[in-house]
Amino acid sequence: MSAILDVKNIEYTYIQKGKLFAKDQTFHLGPVSFSMQAGETIAIVGNNGSGKSLLAKALAGALNIEKGEILIANKEDGRERHNTIRMILQHSADAFNPALSIGSILSQTLRLNTDLNENQRREKIEETLVNVGLLREHFHFYRHMLSDGQQQRVALARALILDPEIIVADEPFAALDPSVRSQTVNLILKLQDELGLGFVFISHNIGIVRHISDRVLVMDKGVIIEQGKTHDVFTHPRTILTQKLVQAHTNLVEKHFVQKYA
């Protein structure tokens, strides 16, 4: 089976301007290489500042890589690539204009990227809302009328509405409470099964990563230091960083268990 996503030795240098008399901070991403099959979920884990989010933005085309290639099912056209891979951020709902209805926000995406007429856009939006567990009537709702979980479902709808083959999700559950997080994880698994979507999933939550991912990439200082099948990597971690991530998760689970049954 050929790869739907093929990342070849990409590199990018990020320069954060220092404040007042502080020096500029430079971070180098790469070289990074990996491939992904259709319907596969790849998780990217690592400490803060390891380059996970920069890699996510590079995959989604939100920044211009300096070296290497990102091939998506051999599509070279920029617009075609943009429609094939879509991104969900941790606080995606913050990007919603509170003065616009959910229908208007989603319609804007369709107007900019498709040739659908108004009636076709309306039908596509309502179908997508239903697919993510909302109601057709949510077309008329505004951001402040929705719960955090519903807002994240709208963010998912905006990513899905162009019928992508890959979703890049950067910490999509971090701001959700545990019960809503569980519902959203199950929704993503359901959609992946129904639509054959590929997911690139970035998270600090090793428990969720173990639950939903097929393979995992461990990043540190802008490069991948370990990768493989999720079960293998977390059962027999080879690098010190991976061992620490697994141990930190184990300690957190044990602490929760003690507090719950003490």
From TrEMBL:
- Domain named ABC transporter: residues: 5-246
Q: Per its UniProt record, what PROSITE patterns does this chain match?
A: ABC_TRANSPORTER_2
GO molecular function ontology, one term from the record = ATP binding
Q: Where in the cell is it found?
A: Cell inner membrane
- Output the GO biological process annotations, alphabetical, semicolon-separated: transmembrane transport
Q: Which CDD domains match?
A: ABC_NikE_OppD_transporters (cd03257)
Keyword Transport in record: yes
Q: Which UniProt keywords apply?
A: ATP-binding, Cell inner membrane, Cell membrane, Membrane, Nucleotide-binding, Transport
Task: Tell me, in one coarse class, where this protein mainly resides.
Answer: membrane
Q: How does the record classify its membrane topology?
A: Peripheral membrane protein
Gene3D superfamilies of this UniProt entry? P-loop containing nucleotide triphosphate hydrolases (3.40.50.300)
Write one Pfam family the protein is assigned to.
Answer: ABC_tran
The family annotation for this protein states: Belongs to the ABC transporter superfamily.
State the protein's name. ABC transporter ATP-binding protein
